[in-house]
């Protein structure tokens, strides 16, 4: 089981992991070792509920294909194990961000006392500036 949050869990059969060779500099080792991880997660075939699937598919992420498959490529680290952990963290963060529902904002007004204090401070500041004027003897 892959635990995304306290309420969201995925089966290991829902995620397809393949090891591929990393890109970039690395000398001779980069041509021999498959240390990068290619993670594929089919959103439509997953065990998530319909609302969560819809939220994931509606996100404007370039890693989601037209077929509804999320593709994550992890190649930041030198070892395959660390890249695998990084890919799972990336998947976890993506699902949490897409399914998070923010609280609605309730508009508030400043209290009468707060407005009075603000006006008093403005008057006091104005008086201070008036005293900076030219002095006539």
List keywords for this structure.
137 residues, alpha+beta, Double Stranded RNA Binding Domain, three-stranded antiparallel beta sheet, two-stranded antiparallel ribbon, 5 strands, elongated
Question: Short summary of the structure?
Answer:
The chain starts with a strand and ends in a 7-residue tail after the last helix. The radius of gyration is 28 Å and the shape is elongated.
Give a written overview of the molecule.
This protein is an alpha+beta fold and 137 residues long. It has a single domain, classed as Double Stranded RNA Binding Domain, CATH 3.30.160. Helices cover 38% and strands 17% of the residues. It contains 4 helices and 5 strands; from the N terminus they run βββαβαβαα. A hairpin with a 5-residue loop joins strand 1 and strand 2.
């Amino acid at each position: 089981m892959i635990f995304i949050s306290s309420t969201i869990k995925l089966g290991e059969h829902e995620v397809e992991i393949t090891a591929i060779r990393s890109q970039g500099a690395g000398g001779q080792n980069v041509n021999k070792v498959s240390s990068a991880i290619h993670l594929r997660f089919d959103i439509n075939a997953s065990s998530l509920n319909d609302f969560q699937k819809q939220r994931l598919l509606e996100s404007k992420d370039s890693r989601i294909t037209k077929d509804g498959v999320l593709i994550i490529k992890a190649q930041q680290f030198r070892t395959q194990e660390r890249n695998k952990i990084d890919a799972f963290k990336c998947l976890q963060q993506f699902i949490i961000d897409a399914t998070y529902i923010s609280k609605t904002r309730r508009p508030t007004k400043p209290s009468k006392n707060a407005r009075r204090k603000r006006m008093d401070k403005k008057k006091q500041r104005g008086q201070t500036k008036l005293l900076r004027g030219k002095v006539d003897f």
